[in-house]
Amino acid sequence: MTQTAETALPPVRHFTVPNADDIAYRHHPGDGPTIVFLPGYMSDMEGGKATRVMADAMAKGRACLLLDYAGCGQSGGDFADGTLSRWCAETIALLDHVAGGARSGPVLLVGSSMGGWLMLMIARALVSRGGDAAVAGMVGIAAAPDFTDWGFDDAQKAALAAGETVFEENNYGYDPMPTHARFWRDGQAQRMLGDTIALYCPTRLLHGQDDPEVPVGIALRLAERLEGGDVRITLVKGGDHRLSRESDIALLLATLDELAG
């Protein structure tokens, strides 16, 4: 499906998180669990995967939420102040807001790269307050939990621990890409792969075999750590980190169809 006038996305709205920043989002009310797309590091809700997920949800009458983390995209704030903990709390506050002020209903979380780590944090928080039924499922796209640990060498970690910002070359339009000490320290405190992860919802991990950023072994470790029994990994031959080819998008949408019911 391509975005046309008939499938124009909902307008961008703004929500001011109490004692925090203005968060930009698009929301479509509908049936079933709310599909929540969580972008990757320095990405936003205007990306191709996010917009296709929203357009598909609208066509099928499903609820869907896209958002920009504080300091990203059309949201307020400074990216240098962003952390996983902060973005987790802000996303949950936004979910409650779009639910009409009450606690949000069941969600189907979709996390791309760093968003896959945030997906786990949000799921754990929602389950802790609402039980297992709060999360209908999770879909990780090159999910990257704990990348503040395995994604940096010793020299970079030492610089970050000393309060410095580390810059890296990349192929995704953010050259050089910064990692700020505040984000890194919070990430180190939120590591998950060293212990079991008490989440039991159906989980699908989509991962490109040619991903140069997140090793396939991370998906295997995550599947092992999740306590739920309904966890599947799909390795995509020729797939890169973004998994944004038409065939990749079709796989993602079919996976959402399976979990959304």
Description:
With 261 residues, the chain is an alpha/beta fold. It has one domain: 3-Layer(aba) Sandwich (Rossmann fold). Helices cover 34% and strands 21% of the residues. The chain is built from eight helices and ten strands. The longest helix has 17 residues, at 114-130. It is globular. Residues 1-6 have low confidence and may be disordered.
Beta strands, count: 10
Outline type: globular
One letter per element, helices H and strands E, the order comes to EEEHEHEHEHHEEHEHEH
The low-pLDDT segments are 1-6
Helix coverage percent: 25-40%
Fourth CATH level, the homologous superfamily: Alpha/Beta hydrolase fold, catalytic domain
Number of helices: 8
Structure keywords:
261 residues, Rossmann fold, eight-stranded mixed beta sheet, two-stranded antiparallel sheet, 8 helices, disordered N terminus
